[in-house]
Write a structure and sequence with these properties.
0% strand, flat, 3 helices, 73% helix, mainly alpha, 122 residues
């Protein structure tokens, strides 16, 4: 079981950081779009973006990830509740997962709104 967890986390880390490592090996003077290669737009915006735009794009990306995680949390809570078979301990555990998941989403969305408000001031 531990081996599967390590493989899963290794896959996640590799998938997350390999584009960063590959792009870091391209020098500033080298054009990555030469020699008939496919180029993609920068997902963070223009090459020299305003700090507000950059932080706003990062917040959007983080909120997308948090939304996916919250969906997984609610699915897990629902699975625990549905498979409880009348066991009140599991029903309470499922309800607690829903409650804490909702509280977490509220905190994250409030923090994101606060950061956008502060960036809007500057």
């Amino acid at each position: 079981m531990k081996c599967k967890k390590y493989l899963f986390f290794t896959f996640i880390i590799t998938a997350t950081f390999s584009p960063i490592i590959i792009y870091a090996q391209i020098g500033e003077n080298e054009n990555p779009c030469s020699n008939n290669t496919i180029c993609l737009d920068n997902p963070l915006g223009p090459q020299d973006p305003d700090i507000n735009i950059l932080i706003g794009n990062i917040i959007k990306a983080v909120l997308g990830i948090v939304g996916s995680i919250s969906l997984a949390i609610f699915t897990y809570g629902g699975f625990i509740w549905l498979t409880s078979a009348g066991n009140m301990e599991k029903v309470q555990k499922g309800k607690a997962i829903f409650t804490w998941g909702t509280i977490g989403i509220i905190i994250i969305l409030t923090a994101a709104a606060f950061v956008r408000f502060v960036l809007g001031i500057f």
